[in-house]
Amino acid sequence: MISLFVCIPQNIKLFMTWGDIDKTAKILSLTDISTTLVTFKMIHLWDAKKKLKPLIFHIRQDWTNSKPENERKLMTHFARKCRNVSLLYVFLSQSTFVFYTAQQIFVAIMEGKTNLTNVTRETYVVSYFPYDLNKSPNFQLSWLMQCISIAFGNIAFATIDSFFAILVLHICGQLRVLRQRVLKCVEEPSGEFRKWKLQNKVSLIVRRHDYLNNCIDIVEDTFNMIFLVQLSGFIVTFCVQGYILILPLVALISEDWRNSKTEKERIIMLNMARTARKISLICVFLSQGTVIFHTAGEMYFTITDRFNEYANQTRRTYIISHFPYDTKNSPNFELTWFSQFLATILATITYAGVHGFFAVLVMHLCAQFAILRYRLIDAIHKIVTKTEKKEFRDEYAAIIRRHQLLNRCVEIIEDAFNMLFLAEILTCSIQFCLQGYQLSIMTGNHEEPLPIVLLIVMVTFLMYMLVLFYIYCYVAEELRYQSTEIVFAAYSCEWYELPSKEANNLLLLMQRAKTPSTLTAGKFCNLSLQLFNKILKTSAGYLSVLLTMTNKEDI
User: How many domains is the chain partitioned into structurally?
Assistant: First the structure.
């Protein structure tokens, strides 16, 4: 039922709208990925039911067998955890279903009231059906069947996750019980030691431990593919949801460029756009330069290792990693090396693209704040030169609304990027420290020849990280500066020539604009050039500690 009314129609609609990224993101962000995941989960668990039946039987047997009071308390404790997890899954899934259903009902009612002649009649989820949905009862039946399918899918999704939690937490409880048995295996209740019982108790504990390990293997074999597919689906969903979150801001940028503007306003936007383009090119150049130097170094190492007749071939992979197979044999080595190479290229493109996109968004907002400052000065100049008061009031109201819109855009960027920057700061601090440590070790070892290629790669990578970290600190500093310049523009203009009522109105704008628009790293600290200096100082301090410890070990 889920496949017939939701999965297949949605995937057909997804294929039909593949060229339109907005419609594609809308389909992927709602139920397409979730329903596909739950369908895969049900099929996979149905295929693994023979393996799970003995495990379920033993769980029931664990509860029916007589046990000491302390062991039963442990099992009850973990059973309560299972119940809480299950209730949480059910509450979240059904709350999502209820809110989404209420939203769709409200949208359907409002569309019917506002457009009585041409009602489009959107289905419960965006789908394609080979019949006319605008006719009754086609629309009502399709809407109802999709609603029921989503409800069943929600129940199945929460049930499968709860079932996994029950299995794992029951095994955790049995391991805790086994731990207590190990602690008491050599003592009788009276405290006397009995050697003749020790062997039997240890034998029972070992067999029980083997049985629990077999249960873990069953759970692993059953759920590992489910978690791989679910993790991939969640990653795609998070990316699409992030795109939808940023989408209004992108639409605003497009609208700003389409609207008519004065020559000075267009010059301001072009200057900021050129700065954003330079930042994007720097990000791409440094990221790809790092990949090129690293690839050249690894190819040089592989070639020299291949023709080295006096030593064993190490066949080092593109990135030092562990794989559950022998990477020294062909074609394992070649395929692994090439796959890591492609993954690194995609990762660096994504990394540079995210930073370039952030720079484009923030620099556009900086341009809009600068234009707003120019419009304020121009509006005050007009009223001073005897322009009508009504035009100034209209322009001033438009400036206030525009300022509020820009502040909301800053909040969108803050909500979308703050956790990313928190992780970035932590990783950059560690990488600066480790890269500096590696460079000092390489240059300080006079017994071996200096690895020029590796040195170039490390210096390029260090410059790449430094420049990227500096870029988003600089961009955030520029946003902070441009947002507060409105206050100085209002103060430095000819406000003393204004009537008292208009001059008092400026105080409201100045009061709001004196609070700078800042971007934070996880709400912990503001991104600024001062933060850049602090991170460098902190990394240098960690580096000095590492070098001091290394020197003490050498002594």
Answer: 2
276 in the same domain as 203? no
Rank 25-39, 281-295, 540-554 by mean pLDDT and report only the highest.
281-295
Helix axes 69-114, 138-184, angle to 10 degrees: 160
Polymer length of the chain: 555
3-state secondary structure of 520: strand
Residue 111: how many CB atoms within 10 A of its CB? Answer: 15
Do 275 and 471 contact (CB within 8 A), yes or no?
A: no
Phi/psi of residue 525, each to 5°? -150, 150
- Look at residue 244 and tell me if it is in a domain: no
Beta carbons of 359 and 475 less than 8 angstroms apart: yes
pLDDT at 305: 66
Taking a C-beta distance cutoff of 8 angstroms, is the pair 141, 123 a contact? no
Element (H, E) at 253: helix 195-258
Backbone angles phi, psi at 520, to 5 degrees: -115, 165
Question: CA-CA distance, 145 to 403, in Å (whole number)?
Answer: 46
Measured between alpha carbons, how far is 212 from 218 in angstroms, rounded to an integer? 10
Name the 3-class secondary structure at 525.
strand
User: Is the Cβ–Cβ distance between 43 and 131 less than 8 Å?
Assistant: no
Specify the DSSP element, H or E, that contains 493. none
pLDDT digits (tens, 9 = 90+) for 89-138: 888 888 888 888 888 787 777 666 555 445 556 777 777 777 777 777 77
Q: What is the CA radius of gyration of the chain?
A: 32
Domain that holds residue 77: 2-235
Non-local (6+) Cβ contacts of 329 within 8 A are none
The Cα 53–Cα 346 span in angstroms is: 43
- Are 364 and 428 in the same domain? yes
Q: Which two tokens stand for residue 329?
A: 């044999």
Sign of CA dihedral 127, 132, 133, 137: negative
CA distance 163 to 455: 52
323 phi-psi bin (left φ>0, alpha ψ -120 to 50, beta other): beta
